[in-house]
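Table S2 (continued). Query chain:
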Amino acid sequence: MSEVVYLTIESSTPIRVDAISQAQPDWIHPHLIQSADPVKGRQFRVSSLVPKGACLLVDRPYAIIPVVDEPQSSDNLICSNPACNNRAVKHAERLSCPNVCIPDVAWCSRTCQDTDKLRHDFECSWLKRYASSIRAKRGEYDFGMLWVIVRLLATRRIEMCDSAPINSAIAPNCQQSIYGWQGIEALCGSSDTWSHDQVRSWTLLVKKYLQNGPVLPHGLPSERILHLICQEEANSFGLYPRETGFTSRPESLVDRGEQFAASVYPTAAIANHSCVPNIIHKPDELGRMVFRASRDILAGEECCISYFDLTRFTDLESRREHLRKSFKFVCQCERCIFDEPVKETDTWDAMPLMDGF
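Corresponding output:
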């Protein structure tokens, strides 16, 4: 059984509650580099040995939404200020939207609410007009997907209005990465990735709920919003309380727990999948995605995460079916290739016996 070393991450620069517009990673390991593969596209590799337990990446979300049942009473509801994302537990200090948009929107303090006003004002009218209708007609999944898109557009709007210079001291190696809205635009995924029926369904959603206008003044053409959905669906992360990516399971199996949020990370989304990942990942208390090496990673190796809970999908068929359904590819990692059944051949090792001679 492999041992995972846990490290405490301390940001070199304090995160301001109002500093969300640049959305650059807070930490990139100096040996973590981007490269390109003809089949996979963008990927992470390491330029030198990275020891087991090392922190490789701390990436802040560009957009994040809560995913909880009964948000009015849930203690797992996250603060709606994207620079905070701490738990907004049910107590006297938790604040709801003054316009009463939806109960999923809450802030853990008055400071978080006040400094989040510009961003939330962008989404508030849309939530009041469409949230109940989408949930009733399309269900929670489609509502969550559309809400993530609206929050991506809200952060983009703030980024466009913010003329403050980027603080490159936050992540010394961040010049390797494309972050902010440019990072979102660089994400993989297009209408060619998904089935015709799926794209047609999303096109109707864009036409009905995400058009540029007074309720949602994003200024982008419908085709770009459709493309953004294709990118989000291929790259968003579910957030869970425990790590994702363990391959050596303890005798008392513990999964990653119940999802409490969903998010899009411009830099973390570069990581490809493997059913034998060398990275485990988990959000920290600020909603930042943290990558850690689960074993020694040798120079030149690709750095991969698992796109799903490996304690739930254990055999080859269930793993590949889940990836085909959710991410539209057939996994060809070393584990899946090793688990493939041996194909029988019809070749003869010797001449057959022949009677009658």
